[in-house]
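Running this now, will post back.
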Amino acid sequence: MRGFSLIELLIAVFVIVLLAGVVSLNVGRGGADISLDAEARHLSELLSFASSEAGMSASDHGLLLNVAPSANPGRYEGHWLRRADQGWVTPRTSTDVFADLRLAEGYELRLSLEGQPDIELAPYDPDLKQPPQVVAWAGGEMTPGALEWLDNQTGDVLYRLEWDLLGRMVLMPKGSELDDRNGG
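Update: finished.
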């Protein structure tokens, strides 16, 4: 009986390692896609909730997005605010719904609001008492706009969340709306 040579065994092991590496890279990216999808959906739900809360409490609510003040590039935060007599303050609630957001790392965020110049997200400084960029007014309206998650490497749009004046949210993977008629 003739067995395998050392070269044949090394080639077989190399092919197996190569395939395992390709599979693990694809699975790793799939996990990132799932967490980004969950983050975009969660933010959509929170903005809708803030709009409802603003109407029910008769007090404007808003979201201030900023770059995290850490050394990690591509890290963003969100701070919920409520309009009070002394300006914008952190909402007082018994739930963690309006807790500060820590958004996923490794993406670039681009916020655009209708009728306003491009918004540059800067580090958060609580002493500045910055107003929120996205406001849900007590009358039921919301600042129309969009938030995009961009791939740091390619600049491609991974997700786009749009909302209109009435606070209706549309989440678009890859920046385009899903076509439910074609099963997409």
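Residues 6-57 form the longest helix (52 residues). More later if anyone needs it.
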